[in-house]
Amino acid sequence: MAHSQENDEMQPASPPQSYEDLIRIIHDRYEGMSKSYQKIAVYLTQNPNDVAVLSVAALAAKCDIHASNYIRFAQALGYKGFKELQVLFQRRLSTAAPGFDARLQALEAELGARADHSEVGFLRDLVVRDMNSLQDLLTNIDGAQISQAVDLMEKAETIFLLGQLRSAPVVELLRYVLTMIGKRTELLDAGGGLATHMAKLMAPTDMLLAVSFRFYATEVVNIVEEAAARGVPIVAISDSTLSPLAKNAEVLFAVPEHEYTFSRSLAAPICLAQALVVALAARTQKSGEAPRIPIVTAT
């Protein structure tokens, strides 16, 4: 009964006929979905190429959700079954780059993958995954987004940085490099419980650059919502367009994490953060040479 009611609430007048329309409807209705439907929605938006080629049983196994939930999810959007929904992903795939899993398998085959659980084997596995994450970043990030984010960074009187838990290394690096190129920067440090209080110093003439990945730090989400309500421009780096940071960000960089494991890498978000700072340095230094980020030991 609960599934039937949710299906009625989700169902549009007619099923979406394009991938873009489907994703828009998923975003619009995400907050009202059940936990299982939200899990499916996140997977669909983060892994569109894999959705195009995998069976519903394989997709269900990746999410640890029963295949029937995928079928009901599709029916809730007006399709007869999951295969009709999958057609939209298959059309998109004809012009898209290979998915993460496909590239990972190709790379492992090329490098002669084997069951190697030695210390160097762990290193190799991490490097292969990082190579694929960086390729995904290059494929999926829009140049216009980078330009818009750098516009906000350039105009801001102060760039406030926010990231906790495993996002902390990204904002720590940003604080260092932004300071070294002469940009006024404040890190909303969780130490001492002062981050929320420091955030109240932000004004609409400043900006907030927030980084958060699943499972999202509650304080980070709350500060982003509060800052947006006060008109502070926000650039966010997260793992999904369905992230709780998405609705309040003027610019959202979605850097999908394909595996929620202990060894999740920060290679792609750190590379993106560095790219933003280098682009900002290129504007502010205004020289014919490549932008340079000084180091503290430079004389």
Report on the architecture of this protein.
With 299 residues, the protein is α/β, with parallel strands linked by helices. Helices cover 55% and strands 7% of the residues. The protein has helices spanning 2-10, 19-29, 35-46, 48-53, 56-63, 67-76, 82-93, 100-110, 119-140, 143-155, 168-180, 195-199, 218-229, 267-285, and strands spanning 159-163, 185-187, 207-211, 234-238, 251-254. It has a five-stranded parallel β-sheet with strand order 2-1-3-4-5, with helices on both faces. β3, α13 and β4 (234-238) form a beta-alpha-beta unit. The protein is globular and about 60 Å long. The protein starts with a helix and ends in a 14-residue tail after the last helix.
Mean pLDDT: 83
In oligomeric terms, what are we looking at?
Answer: single chain
The main pleated sheet reads as: 5 strands, parallel
State Rg.
21 Å
The CA-CA distance between the termini, in Å, is 71 Å
- Content of β-strand: 5-15%
**Share of helix, binned:** 40-55%
**Spans where pLDDT lies below 50 across 5 or more residues:** none
Number of strand elements: 5
General shape: globular
Total helical segments: 14
Structural class: alpha/beta
Quick structural overview:
With 299 residues, the chain is α/β, with parallel strands linked by helices. 55% of the residues lie in helices and 7% in strands. It has a 5-stranded parallel beta sheet with strand order 2-1-3-4-5, sandwiched between helices.
